[in-house]
Amino acid sequence: MSAVAQATAGDAYSIASRLEAGLKGAPRGLLIDGKSVQAVSGKTFATLNPATGKEICQVAEGGAADVDLAVQAARRALTNPAWCNMSAVDRSLVLNRLADLIERDAQELAVLECIDNGKPATLTKVVEIEGSIKTFRYFAGWPTKFGGETLPVSPRSGAKILNYTVREPVGVCGLIVPWNYPMSMAAWKVAPALAAGCTVVLKPAEQTPLTALRLAELALEAGIPAGVFNVITGFGEAGAALVDHPGVDKVAFTGSTEVGKAIVRGSTGNLKKVSLELGGKSPQIVLPDADLDAAAASIAAGIFFNQGQTCTAGSRLYAHASIHDDLLGRIADHAAKLTIGNGLDPSVNFGPLVSEEQWDRVSSYVEIGQREGAELVCGGARPNGLGDGFFFQPTILANAGRDMRIVREEIFGPVLSALSWSDPEDLVAQANDSDFGLSAGIWTNDLKQAHRLAGAVKAGTVWVNCFNLVDNATPFGGFKQSGWGREHGRQAMELYSEVKSIWVNLS
Ligand code: NDP
């Protein structure tokens, strides 16, 4: 992949003004059957720039009637010969072409995501845009490699049988994504679904609808037939209508555990296949022999990156008592060095939270933590001088206790809850004493301890002396209430396909 050029401050601000000017006027429509259309109800809603609190534009508010039209279009597209008979090589080419177009428009997409979501444009470019390009290129490699097997069956009759399996697309997929990584979460689902030959209806979060619409337009330009990739913008009701719809064969969801449970309940009508990537409360476990410089830098990044709005955020710190104070001081130093502000400024590496609602939620947890006995080490409030944006300082709460809400619940903001430990057996019990099991970090130079802990921690991903590394090649997902199924890798292709076993009597 060629490097995506970095924007200068002037560039990002001027691209943002041009984009915002272009978005004024008619509301952004839904994308159904290759066309931009307004909602059947005519309703629209505002999407805001979290750095200013101001409206960017109006967006169509899709409801059940629109979901129905999108699902019908996706069902038709499933049997459109231009899609279902597309060769594996051509499917691969079309996904690579989509990656090329994202690369062509990388600068604009990064700024669009920055103004809609708040995260700094420089980070957006790397995480959301380059990440999505990689995702489409990775899954573009699968259509030519994803097949069945021939199996050595032993029928009682002694008949000579050829048994083989084939993979078929699971069908129409409802993809429901959150606001924290809008474009990459969409790519993580759209890319394997299309690689497997499915058709999709994507429901982006109400806070961040803009890049999803643009992605679907680029898919059309890439040559993906109309109706294969539809987008319904709107609220949770639109997501619920998708989950309820009998024409949807599978739902893939990333978001809160609470909504994940509602999706499981709502999907029973036609027993849709469901995959869920839900919340987390990931422990960062630091042993006394750890490299504290490296650990502090990575633990700070692990909780403050994307303003803590990351499902894998390392939000529970378990530092050995002998190094606890030293480590906390170093993490606080990293927090103090973050540059908070409007993400269009390339020197900014810490933007606003996504919405006022999220600001209130994070702030309330800081209050709850202190009320329950935790001690505020740094942050905890709105930084001065940044206007009406939804900014919240990087925050550390020390002396956290295992039963405190700040240790048990997903805050989804830049708040680290720190605990100290001295009994290794109790450490594992504490780290696993959570409803979640998405990820964990382990910091030690003792190889034996690293492997012992990696085996003992109940989490879908374990990072040893690193944190938050994600790659399309390796499975991603959670134990316990952090979800069902794994995204990325072969596992993702399996999520979007059915296996058929075929028996041929050769006797
Ligand atoms: P939600 O889980 O509510 O939203 C995620 C997506 O689901 C959005 O597109 C949302 O639409 C949609 N949705 C909401 N209700 C339903 C429903 N009943 N059926 C189908 N789809 C639905 O997350 P929130 O945005 O409300 O954030 C709340 C909390 O969830 C955060 O504070 C955080 O703790 C957690 N969260 C976790 C994420 C993760 O990656 N683990 C990601 C995002 C949030 P709409 O946007 O309109 O509500």
UniProtKB/TrEMBL annotation:
<feature type="active site">
    <location>
        <position position="277"/>
    </location>
</feature>
<dbReference type="InterPro" id="IPR016163">
    <property type="entry name" value="Ald_DH_C"/>
</dbReference>
<dbReference type="InterPro" id="IPR016162">
    <property type="entry name" value="Ald_DH_N"/>
</dbReference>
<dbReference type="GO" id="GO:0008957">
    <property type="term" value="F:phenylacetaldehyde dehydrogenase (NAD+) activity"/>
</dbReference>
<dbReference type="InterPro" id="IPR016161">
    <property type="entry name" value="Ald_DH/histidinol_DH"/>
</dbReference>
<keyword id="KW-0560">Oxidoreductase</keyword>
<dbReference type="Pfam" id="PF00171">
    <property type="entry name" value="Aldedh"/>
</dbReference>
<feature type="domain" description="Aldehyde dehydrogenase">
    <location>
        <begin position="41"/>
        <end position="502"/>
    </location>
</feature>
<dbReference type="InterPro" id="IPR015590">
    <property type="entry name" value="Aldehyde_DH_dom"/>
</dbReference>
<dbReference type="InterPro" id="IPR029510">
    <property type="entry name" value="Ald_DH_CS_GLU"/>
</dbReference>
<comment type="similarity">
    <text>Belongs to the aldehyde dehydrogenase family.</text>
</comment>
<protein>
    <submittedName>
        <fullName>Phenylacetaldehyde dehydrogenase</fullName>
        <ecNumber>1.2.1.39</ecNumber>
    </submittedName>
</protein>
<dbReference type="InterPro" id="IPR016160">
    <property type="entry name" value="Ald_DH_CS_CYS"/>
</dbReference>
